[in-house]
Write a structure and sequence with these properties.
The complex is a heterodimer of chains A (319) and B (244). Chain A has 14 helices and two strands. Chain A has 319 residues and is an all-alpha fold. Chain A has one domain: Orthogonal Bundle (ABC transporter involved in vitamin B12 uptake, BtuC), CATH 1.10.3470. Chain A has a two-stranded antiparallel ribbon. Chain B has 244 residues and is α/β, with parallel strands linked by helices. Chain B has a domain of 130 residues: Rossmann fold. Chain B is 36% helix and 26% strand. Chain B is built from nine helices and ten strands. In chain B, the strands form two sheets. A six-stranded mixed β-sheet of chain B has the order 6-7-8-3-9-10, with helices on both faces. Chain B has a four-stranded antiparallel β-sheet with strand order 2-1-4-5, with helices on one face. In chain B, β7, α6 and β8 form a beta-alpha-beta unit. In chain B, α3 packs across α4, α3 runs parallel beside α5 and α4 runs antiparallel to α5. The radius of gyration of chain B is 18 Å and the shape is globular. The chains are: A mainly alpha (319), B alpha/beta (244). The interface between A and B is medium-sized, with 19 and 26 residues.
Chain lengths: 319, 244
């Protein structure tokens, strides 16, 4: 239990540090922080399905888009007061994402591995096209959302805290989930689905539930993201790079670990926006090299490498 | 003989043209250790796959504890009280021994339980208590078999199907597995064993069923089965089939 207390203290310290950070850094760095927290939140939401259950979605941006469009269209049609609209849009964005996931769950979750990944990629592409070409969605023209930021606070700080709350919430949820009965069932599904079934794990029900949860959280982030943009088109929310970054962040940090998606997001956002911020013409190239290097040298992610080191160290210690 | 906990009637499985199991009637008495033997391809694994719902029978019925279970999904069958230990060990390699067993304890048969107590108990029963923190991927074959058994036992089954738990083990490891099976039975569980190791079968079984080419050719106490001409012929061939 000593390790657990230490982990809770560390998570609390990081949260406290992130909470006071905007008071001490330049606005540009608050924006970088906002991007990091958005990325961490998305990676954590993806990881609930991809990391715990082992179902890698290559099209999770579909749910970012659904969340964003739900919030946008809700505003266009109902014109609620800004703050109420924001709250309702965020809530509904998660709900519509969840409902959509529930509808497609049965066919797509029959697929495993790469087939599931590709099916979701297809779903996200189709939704992107639909939002762009069906007039009712106004995705080509773009949707405007009202300014909801209170006068006393700068917009980048406001959304920084929005994304911090989301990421911290999803992190806490993941921590609970991992130790729960559902979490053990998902680990069994990830490791060997047929054996899991033989041990009485209701695999179908658990997979659908997890898929819906992951979609709901991603859709909620999508709605808040839409508000942070103010104006968005299909292209700003149905983004293949969103889908890929969720996977990449989780992978670099360590799939199956709790903090992996956060550490991966921190690393990549820091490298691309701070270290290479002045080298715009080569930063993607350097990022690419870095990613390839990390995947080759540390296939189990940064936390995976740490765990292996610790295990080796313990073995050496005890002859 | 006590009332059967598992009985099949006319159990038949056809895979397209191939009849893997044909008209098999088997009654496993509650509280016994029974063995299912037969040459390779006799249908032993098919029988296990049918009982655990991995494949659905083409004809016939399977009744477990008074309830028709044929056609039910695997996880439902497990929750009703049938556990299975696989021949080719299928541990969850990324999890520790304890977490592997804990999955069984958290799921498995319906009803109240304390998952920690069930996990500890199953590990102790299978002689794994000293390895609880080891990664499942680091275990030797003998310990993987114990893990298979522990995980299945943790699901609190009334009937344990053990698929060749002794295959590839040395005599002392085999003796330990036999010991575990006896302890399982002593708790009131019924065990149905598929096994090639005849010494283990003869030593531990109350009753033996013999399959050949998907049919039941004999059944009875082990001593009688060992002398049954049909069984000897199935294993060694008859003079008529022997070209030499």
């Amino acid at each position: 239990m000593k390790g657990r207390t230490a982990a809770i203290l560390a998570a609390g310290a990081v949260l406290a540090l992130l909470a006071v950070l905007p008071a001490f850094v330049m606005p540009y760095h608050v924006r970088v922080g906002q991007l990091f927290l958005l990325s961490a939140g998305l990676a954590l939401a993806w990881h609930i399905l991809g990391g715990f259950a082992g179902y890698w979605s290559f099209g999770h941006t579909a749910f970012v888009g659904i969340g964003a469009f739900t919030a946008g269209l809700l505003h266009v049609h109902l014109k609620l007061p800004p703050m109420l609209g924001f709250a309702a849009g965020t809530l509904l964005g998660g709900c519509v994402s969840a409902a959509f996931a529930a509808v497609i769950a049965y066919p797509v979750l029959r697929l495993r591995g790469i087939y599931f990944a590709i099916a979701l990629l297809g779903v996200s592409q189709v939704l992107g096209e639909l939002s762009q070409n069906v007039d009712a969605f106004q995705g080509a023209l773009g949707l405007n959302l009202p300014d909801i930021v209170p006068d006393a606070i700068r917009p980048e700080v406001f959304f920084y805290y929005c994304f911090l709350a989301l990421a911290a919430g999803i992190f806490a949820f993941s921590a609970w989930l991992r130790g729960s009965r559902l979490g053990y069932g998902l680990a069994a599904i990830r490791e060997d689905e047929d054996t899991a079934r033989m041990l009485g794990v209701p695999t179908e029900r658990f997979k659908v539930l997890t898929f819906v949860l992951s979609a709901a959280l991603t859709g909620t982030i999508g709605a808040v993201y839409a508000y942070s943009l103010g104006y968005f088109t299909s292209g700003s929310v149905f983004r293949v790079d969103f889908s890929l970054n969720m996977i990449l962040h989780a992978l670099l940090g360590g799939i199956g670990t709790l903090a992996g998606p956060v550490i991966g997001a921190a690393l990549l956002v820091f490298v691309t926006n701070v270290l290479l911020g002045r080298l715009l013409d080569v930063h993607l190239l350097v990022t690419g090299v870095l990613v390839v290097g990390l995947v080759l040298l540390a296939p189990s992610g940064l936390l995976g490498v740490l765990r292996d080191w610790r295990a080796r160290w313990r073995r050496n210690e005890r002859p | 003989m006590s009332a059967p906990i598992l009985s099949t009637r006319g159990l038949t499985k056809r895979f397209r043209g191939l009849t893997a199991m044909s008209d098999v009637d088997i009654d496993v008495p509650a509280g016994s250790i029974c063995s299912l033997i037969g040459p390779n391809g006799a249908g032993k694994s098919t029988f296990f796959n049918l009982v655990t719902g991995y494949v659905a029978p083409s004809a016939g019925s399977i009744v477990f504890a008074g309830r028709r279970i044929d056609g039910m999904p695997t996880d439902t069958i497990n929750r009703l009280g049938i556990g299975r230990a696989f021949q080719i060990s299928k541990p969850f390699p990324g999890l520790s021994v304890r977490d592997n067993v804990r999955v069984g304890a958290l799921f498995g048969a319906d009803g109240d339980r304390d998952p920690d107590a069930v996990t500890e108990d199953a590990m102790t029963l299978a002689g794994l208590a000293g390895h609880r923190d080891a990664a499942a991927s680091s275990l030797t074959v003998g310990f993987l078999r114990r893990l298979e058994l522990a995980r299945a036992i943790a699901t609190r089954p009334r009937l344990l199907l053990a698929d060749e738990p002794c295959a590839g083990l040395n005599p002392s490891e085999t003796a330990e597995i036999v010991d575990i099976l006896r302890r399982v039975r002593a708790r009131g569980l019924t065990v149905l064993l598929v096994e090639h190791d005849m010494r283990a079968v003869m030593e531990v079984s109350d009753h033996v069923f013999v399959l050949e080419a998907g049919r039941k050719i004999a059944e009875g106490p082990p001593q009688r089965i060992a002398r049954d001409p049909a069984v000897i012929a199935a294993y060694l061939g008859t003079d008529a089939e022997d070209p030499g």
